Predict the structure of 2,3-bisphosphoglycerate-dependent phosphoglycerate mutase.
Amino acid sequence: MNRLLVLVRHGQSDWNLKNLFTGWKDPDLTELGVEEAVEAGRRLKALGLQFDVAFTSNLVRAQRTCTLLLREIGQPGIETFEDEALNERDYGELAGLNKDDARARWGEDQVHIWRRSYDVQPPGGESLKDTVARVLPYYMREILPRVMRGERVLVAAHGNSLRALVMVLDGLTPETIPSMELATGIPLVYRLKADTTVEDKKVLAA
């Protein structure tokens, strides 16, 4: 059985380029982001990987990454589920603000705590802990059972929603996960054992 699970953070978005807190706001990909999504597809195709089902968020940058990637590997029509459970962390009042402007308003230390702590919420938003609590039940209910049945599963989502999955798969802790970064458009290829733990992991970087 394959037990294949591939995680891909969306390509660069317009707000990534502008250094804005994005969260549940819905900017599209930049030209570079489109290239990153297509290149992710090329790298997966080069390994001969195909998928039975895909999952993505309710946000266009992840959806478009998923579409471009699947088109590149010749699978544009496979079943794809979209759900807000896989959305980026909600940054609340920070969403739409330039990160430098946020530092000027609240201070370097406070913004660093909001960005890099595990359980401190920005004003009106989610902590990483909150995001994990939203993503993991969806993973356990909808995604993992398909992987364990031998389906080949693609998840195209966001830095923080995917960090929630990597936290479980890689055995990271609340102390180590905040410093872990996921690059845009770089596939993480997992194969799972029969007990749902990781048998093998490949990072398809350039």
Summary: The helical segments are 14-17, 31-46, 60-72, 99-106, 108-116, 128-148, 159-169. The chain is about 40% helix and 15% strand. Strands lie at 4-9, 53-56, 79-82, 153-157, 188-192, 198-203.
